Amino acid sequence: MQSSALQQLDLFKQASSHSLNQLSQAFKRHFYKKNTLLLDHHTLALTFLYVINGWVKLFKENANGEEIVIDVLTKGHYCGDEFLFQAEETDTYSAQSISDVEVITLPLATLKRLLRSDNGLSIGFLEQSLKKRRNMYVETEHLNMKNAMQRIGCFILRLCDQHNGQKLTIHLPYDKVLLAARLGMRAETFSRALKKLSKECSLKIHDQAVEIACRDQLVHYVCPSCSKTFPCETVPKAFRI
Amino acid sequence: MQSSALQQLDLFKQASSHSLNQLSQAFKRHFYKKNTLLLDHHTLALTFLYVINGWVKLFKENANGEEIVIDVLTKGHYCGDEFLFQAEETDTYSAQSISDVEVITLPLATLKRLLRSDNGLSIGFLEQSLKKRRNMYVETEHLNMKNAMQRIGCFILRLCDQHNGQKLTIHLPYDKVLLAARLGMRAETFSRALKKLSKECSLKIHDQAVEIACRDQLVHYVCPSCSKTFPCETVPKAFRI
DNA sequence: CGAAACCTTGACAATGTTCAATCACTGTGG
DNA sequence: CCACAGTGATTGAACATTGTCAAGGTTTCG
User: Fold this and answer.
1) According to the model, what pLDDT value does residue B163 have?
2) Torsion of CA B69, B70, B71, B76, to 10 degrees
């Protein structure tokens, strides 16, 4: 990892050159195959994880042994930072690749040491953490205000490049079981809701491909229940940090 | 606001004495009556708000004009920080007192200026922001995993001083309509669920008072669906035998 | 006093979950 | 190469939970 490459990232763009050098040496770069456990819940609480390419599932188990999906990360996303100043290992989770991935890792202890002496680095992490919180507020609102069909529609809309014309085809970035969990519903509910949504909004579904005849029709169904207007984000959710 | 008092707060405990002095001069202290609009959604995006005493509701309206409760703050809680580095005024909300309150406010611009030159201050804000995010993960999990009765029970348990004995009486800190919204359900659902919970777990409800005959009974009903164990704050499940 | 807010209750509708069955597809070992 | 197991996906039927609407009681406050 070049320190110049690091500086391109929002997280590090205000970091000192000393920090960037230290970081570029301390980071480890990894390539993993699909379905590999990247970090177990012990290690994750000690490690900063940044996704360069591919998709990563964050998950834990509840008391009944069922899997809870915390989040799904891709290019530009990261995790583990929330345990920086947390002594006890609690509320942690594991990370698993759901595609071939390229990631970088760094011991939180190293990061913490650098943060202590580099205000630019601290501010970068603060800024991104605040952004994550704003995103979480939106997600919570969606979970409360939107039904299954609307949440799926919202996810699809966020995959549309906003500069595209009306008619377009997008591809669901990972399997439907996981997507259902990510959107807070069961696989069966997802299957039915997607089918219903496709009738309602003139979509054609072929496996992972979603053909959208008229984007505005989808917007009209999905967005009224929301405090934002489409396009919600310049960059689709998948590529947000 | 004395700078020595400020330093007692987790947010500011690592701040430089220069920052503390600046802050203690820039802060404004306010006393408001119940049901006062403290900050509208424009002002809130420009203001740091810290609650000294009393209760504050954060809310906005959705497209249908219904109120969405974002959060309810009390002593030691704060908000507005998430707009520190956000140029556009989006996803904002308003703040209203729901009891007589004492709060302090500070323009975010001032805070931002101080953060730039005080790494201790930045780290304080980062640390608290990460803590908020960990709390939000727990809340999201609860919303997904717990039903109405369990969410109410969990809220009640968190009001119990963990060192109390089995039998105790707690008081709901604000009205049930708001509490229902805070817990992500309708007032009617709250009413029925609380009644059902009180039968299930030997509670006696008189208006705002909740008499708990056996706290463990409540724990037994509420906590199995959760990755934490009661008392939630201290003992991670990982260390149970 | 009267209006408004708070709270509860009943009947019913909407939404999502659970369970069981089925099918297609993929990768593995014999 | 085929049989087979496992995963992903869909569907139906029964069920559970929560929301909606309407009504009525209580409290609060001007």
Assistant:
1) 58
2) -140
